[in-house]
């Protein structure tokens, strides 16, 4: 891993010089607090922050069937926390404060997540982070809405890095919830842009996890295909229990029997890994259009069978290209050099940096003040410009559709997890091309 370590120093300098956060136009953008926010992410590394730590609670499944996904989230968020602290922490009116990551294990259960949320409230932790289940996210939003109404002196802000149910920033939007991932409709729109150009696809099979997000993927696939490729026939639309299927061979057999040219799936974690592994073992010659085909373990599970067959969509990937992007990736790999830890998710560390900028602009770590500062905030680290739409608290950012290939082929400079396989960009959408309308009716305190 020497090349990552050699690149680390230059990478950190490139990142520190490239990051710029600023608010939407208005008086706040020119305030001293706003200028402090800019310095906190774009200036030279500051001294060690000495103020009381600002605790951020991660409520996620750290044990159980998706423990590997929880561990990956922790690494990415910890990287963001360390980056902010290395730059001098969060600049508030009373000095610089470090972030402190507090990990609370939900065991993949909604009930346990709510228990951990109450524990965080008892400890007066004002910032809650979760994302690996839209069902859990919806429950947390409901509980936080009640908590903040009941105890205005002990409010919490929910930072969502992966729960992609569109309703969370549409009909079910909340002032206390901010989503830093593209929602399922935005991701599906990008995927179908690629399917639209692939005239070999005539039949599609939909296979998804049986919970709110999986049903969203299914309905969005049907509606988006009907708009962009009405000639495509949906030959299967099936749901399976989340986290409980150990052998996907029967599902692969159904896909083969249907004659599908492509599969669309929102599966993640072990449900995706086991699905693509079964496809490889049965020699299924079908394209997989996925939300998370580049995720933990998937490229290695697919092997050669995935080359040219697996398509994924993400807000960023290691082969997005450009010196600043490469430098950021080098810094992540220097921090987490083990091959099995090679799963950087850019939006998670950027969520932490954006939060720090909002706090510095507000001059306070109070969740209500920070929520107002987050509305309309813009963040640009030099290679990934984004903004938080105030209307619904949905982050607007670039999206990439990518296809799996062997490392070393054009466009695949880096592989995933030492597997020898990586992804190359087939469609890069700038942030303004990913915008979708919202029906959110935001109720502000």
From TrEMBL:
Domain of life, source organism: Bacteria
Keywords tagged on the record: Signal
Signal peptide, first to last residue: 1-23
Region Disordered: start-end pairs: 31-53
Signal in keyword set: yes
InterPro entries in the record: BCAA_transport, Leu-bd, Peripla_BP_I
Domain Leucine-binding protein: 53-408
Assigned protein family: Belongs to the leucine-binding protein family.
Protein name: Amino acid/amide ABC transporter substrate-binding protein, HAAT family
Organism from which the protein derives: Paraburkholderia fungorum
Highest classification ranks of the organism: Bacteria, Pseudomonadati, Pseudomonadota, Betaproteobacteria, Burkholderiales
